[in-house]
Amino acid sequence: KQKVTIPALKEMKEQGKKIRMVTAYDYPTGILVDKTDIELILVGDSLGMVVLGYDGTVPVTMEEMIHHCKATVRGAKNTLIVGDLPFGSYNMSISDAVYNATRMMKEGGADCIKLEGGLPVVETVRAIVNGGVPVMAHIGLTPQTASALGGFKVQGKDAAAAERMINEALKLEEAGAFAIVLEAIPAPLAEIITKKLTIPTIGIGAGVHCDGQVLVTHDLIGLFDRFVPKFVKQYANISQDIVAAFNAYAEEVATGKFPGPEHSFTMKDDVLKRLY
Ligand code: KIV
Ligand code: NA
């Protein structure tokens, strides 16, 4: 496997080849994704919910993101790594945003960053790109500001909202974003945006016509079931396997079946004799 380049993602769009992205937050998952043909890893701030147990993504800090990004990068040497900028790291000033995007690359080891938002972040995106950090945009349902959107619900359903979103996507492309995540929007709207843009769209809950797809790994493998959104497909139920393994271990320890002789160390008889 060879690490995909950012220009190659645009070529994939032009050739109609689908772009695959999943999240990873640690070294072992980085290694596993690296064994597959999946082009991109997102070290998403969704880690706040699925690995740190927060109610949402808002509390996630730059330090937490960098910590998880570093671990993931050590495992995934041949997969392009997108580091998600957490809430509060790019909303206060453009210079803050450029600084934190740079940290994600320099300290976290990410190849590029992602941030959420439409028109209000266009100039931020431009400044980060000019600073030398490639930016993936993210519009539609933006979890960091979900409460202002009225909760975790589909965006862009009426004509005015849909037109606004098309305009945002075009402005983000013009500002230099190399790709754009479309989250929880009607499939026909995602198709229109995908056709209007020259940069790839990566959908989550945005239908099959996007240039690529992304899922949260913990949703995809069934390792997080506090809630399962409509747009998630579970390809495995790892939670069940893990609980079964824990139960089998607990049972074998209780009954003395584990550890067996094959898991235990021996001593020479003459050494042992002296101890009695
Ligand atoms: O943090 C995340 O996992 C994301 C994806 C859902 C796009 O932003
Ligand atoms: Na995110």
TrEMBL record:
Cofactor detail note: Binds 1 Mg(2+) ion per subunit.
Statement: the UniProt record of this protein carries the keyword Coiled coil: no
Annotated Pfam families: Pantoate_transf
Catalytic activity of the protein: (6R)-5,10-methylene-5,6,7,8-tetrahydrofolate + 3-methyl-2-oxobutanoate + H2O = 2-dehydropantoate + (6S)-5,6,7,8-tetrahydrofolate
Enzyme Commission code: 2.1.2.11
Active site positions, chain numbering: E183 (proton acceptor)
Keywords, ordered alphabetically: Cytoplasm, Magnesium, Metal-binding, Pantothenate biosynthesis, Transferase
Record's protein name: 3-methyl-2-oxobutanoate hydroxymethyltransferase
